Amino acid sequence: MSWPARPPLDPEAPARAAGTTSSAALDLLVTSCAACPRLVEWREQVARNKRAAFRDQDYWGRAVPAFGDPDADVLVIGLAPAAHGANRTGRMFTGDRSGDFLFAALHRAGYANQPTAVSADDGLELTGVRITAPVHCAPPANKPTPAERRRCSPFLARELELAGAPVLVVLGGFGWQAVLASLADQGWTIPRPRPAFGHGAEVTLAGPGGRSTTLLGCFHVSQQNTFTGRLTPAMIDDVLRRARELTVA
Ligand code: SF4
Questions:
Q1: Which of 49, 57, 130, 56 has the alpha carbon at shortest distance from 88?
Q2: What residue ranges line ligand 1, CB within 6 angstroms?
Q3: Most distant CA pair in the chain: distance in Å?
Q4: Domains identified in the chain, total number
């Protein structure tokens, strides 16, 4: 397994996010973060106890950095790493059913060189897309607390600044709210009332310096959505097709 770099743990890492000057530096800082005691304990406990199917594997057990093309036109924003998915593999959305669905869709849309993602060294490469989350550590029951969300928010804020992506594909209402809050903090003009999340929602926002970005809403690729048919391959394909249209226009 070729893990991302493992710098020493740092409880003050979020405070340094604004000072990073590249996606690589931001990713490295995220992997050092130990700011949330509950999540640090949980991610390490899961990594020690493991799921039976993965008992022979060395879990990552740390904050998971963003993954993909640092010059992406499309930033995909999820919720948080899964305990036995990205918390195991060290790479966003990799190693669980959510990732199976997402990477297959990215491959169909021409953003991924292969449809599968099983580990951090499986050869998967993304072109034109980078994937991140508002919370970088696996939370118990997939539910970060409001304080944990706030603590992790400097990483998303810096990601949005550094990436400067013209299209943000937001998977689920949690990410949608986090992105709008972060852009508002950075001086972007957010309509009132705030645009509501929905699958297929589309809103273009104006930012400082004449920048603009378009948010595209997509139901989250969680098993609850994909196994029940609430989110189908055709539905996410439509969103990614729209993302492509917006970035080649
Ligand atoms: S959730 Fe975010 S702020 Fe909290 S420990 Fe993980 S990376 Fe750090």
A1: 57
A2: 14, 30, 33-36, 39-40, 63, 135-137, 148, 151-152
A3: 52
A4: 1
Residue nearest atom 4 in ligand 1 by C-alpha distance: 36
In-domain check, residue 170: yes
Q: Any idea what the CATH number is for the domain that residue 188 is in?
A: 3.40.470.10
Residue with the nearest Cα to atom 3 of ligand 1? 152
Domain that holds residue 224: 13-248
Establish if 43 belongs to a structural domain: yes
* pTM for the structure as a whole: 0.95
User: Does residue 7 lie in a domain region?
Assistant: no
Among 6, 9, 10, 137, residue to substitute to test ligand 1 (most atoms within 8 Å of Cβ): 137
Per-residue pLDDT of 118-154, as tens digits, reads 888 899 999 999 999 999 999 999 899 999 999 999 9
Determine the distance separating the centroid of ligand 1 and the alpha carbon of 214, expressed in angstroms: 27
Residue 155 Cα: closest atom of ligand 1 = 2
1 located within any domain? no
Tell me what the mean pLDDT of segment 5-31 comes to. 95
Q: Are 65 and 20 in contact (CB under 8 A)?
A: no
Distances (CA, A) of 135 to 39, 43, 80, 92, 157: 10, 13, 5, 11, 12
